[in-house]
Automatic annotation (TrEMBL):
Pfam families, per the entry: BPD_transp_1
Protein name, entry field: Sugar ABC transporter permease
Family according to the record: Belongs to the binding-protein-dependent transport system permease family.
Top-level taxon of the source organism: Bacteria
Subcellular location: Cell membrane
Ranges where the record places region Disordered: 1-21
Biased composition (Low complexity): 1-10
InterPro entries, sorted: ABC_transporter_permease, MetI-like, MetI-like_sf
Entry GO CC: plasma membrane
The organism of origin for this protein: Streptantibioticus silvisoli
One Gene Ontology biological process: transmembrane transport
Residues covered by the ABC transmembrane type-1 domain: 94-305
Keywords: Cell membrane, Membrane, Transmembrane, Transmembrane helix, Transport
Membrane topology qualifier: Multi-pass membrane protein
Length: 313
């Protein structure tokens, strides 16, 4: 008599991820941290440390010294800030930068979006026009200043074209027109960069929306206002904040075009005052306090602009 022994089928072992997969999952986040580390170090060294040191200087009586020399820097509290707010040139510089931003920021946003929408269409020579608008942004500021000095300087081309209608004194030495001319100059200079930002944003707007608008009989203006403008709202936030930051840091243009903020401080900017007080007049503590005030103002304006442009998302 033979007996057969039946063996129950062995249940398969649960699948386990390979050891290499486990190591990869543990390793990849560390790789990401290592890639981010240089940028974090850069931010700490180039931005965070100078900002904190500048804040420290603003509360002390600080002097430039020769290497190796030590001069006491006594604590003065808010004395430097009181000097900043009491200085009439500082107050004038903030009024000037307010005028500048009122002209520059809306003009930049509107022109950049309209031009980007036009350049996004299938137009002949589209690549040429894109490069032409971007060229001023990558051109040296000194070269662009020479062009605008030729156009708006005393006996410049614009004065000759306008003839008796030209302002007297001329644009760049006119206390009424100096700041608006600087605003137009910076708008023209930086417009190409913001056009490229909008062009990139327009690639994310679905073409089906435009097709549907065309089927519904929407005109060009209605399509632009109902589809394009809402579709690029995040880019509008970026453009607005960038324009506020760059405009608030205005320095090169008044320094070169109007001879250092003239006439009679009509085009002086806060950063230009920081340079004059801190470098030319050797009052770095005053300049540091002014820098802190400017940073706070720029952050506040940027947050307000962001809240306004993101409304409706």
């Amino acid at each position: 008599m033979s007996t057969a022994t039946a063996t129950a089928p062995r249940s398969p072992a649960p699948d386990r991820p390979p050891a290499t997969a486990d190591r990869r999952r543990r390793f990849l986040p560390r790789v990401g941290h290592w890639f981010v580390t240089p940028y974090v170090v850069f931010l700490l060294v180039v931005f965070a440390y100078p900002l904190l040191y500048n804040l420290w200087i603003s509360f002390h009586r600080f002097y430039f010294t020769a290497p190796g020399a030590h001069v006491p820097s006594p604590w003065v509290g808010f004395a430097n800030y009181r000097d900043v707010f009491a200085d009439p040139v500082v107050r004038k510089s903030f009024v000037n930068i307010g005028i500048f931003l009122v002209i520059n920021v809306p003009l930049t946003v509107v022109l950049a979006l309209v031009l980007a929408a036009a350049l996004n269409a299938k137009l002949p020579f589209r690549g040429f026009f894109r490069a032409a608008f971007y060229l001023p942004y990558v051109t040296a500021s000194v070269a662009l200043v020479a062009v605008w000095s030729f156009l708006f300087g005393s006996d410049g081309l614009v004065d000759k074209v306008l003839g008796p209608l030209a302002p007297d004194p001329s644009w760049l030495v006119n206390s009424t027109w100096a700041m608006p001319v600087l605003a137009f100059f910076v708008t023209w200079k930086q417009l190409g960069f913001f056009v490229m930002l909008y062009l990139a944003a327009l690639q994310n707007v679905s073409g089906e929306l435009y097709d549907a608008a065309s089927v519904d009989g929407a005109g060009t203006l209605r399509t632009f206002l109902s589809i394009t403008v809402p579709g690029v709202r995040p880019a509008t936030t970026v453009v607005t904040v960038f324009a506020i930051i760059t405009g608030s840091n205005l320095f090169t243009e008044p320094y070169l075009l109007t001879g250092g903020g003239g006439p009679a401080d009509a085009s002086v900017s806060p950063v230009l005052v920081m340079y004059q007080k801190g470098i030319e007049q050797a009052h770095p503590d005053f300049a540091a306090a002014l820098g802190v005030v400017l940073v706070v103002l720029v952050v506040a304006l940027s947050l307000i602009a962001r809240r306004f442009t993101e409304k409706g998302d």
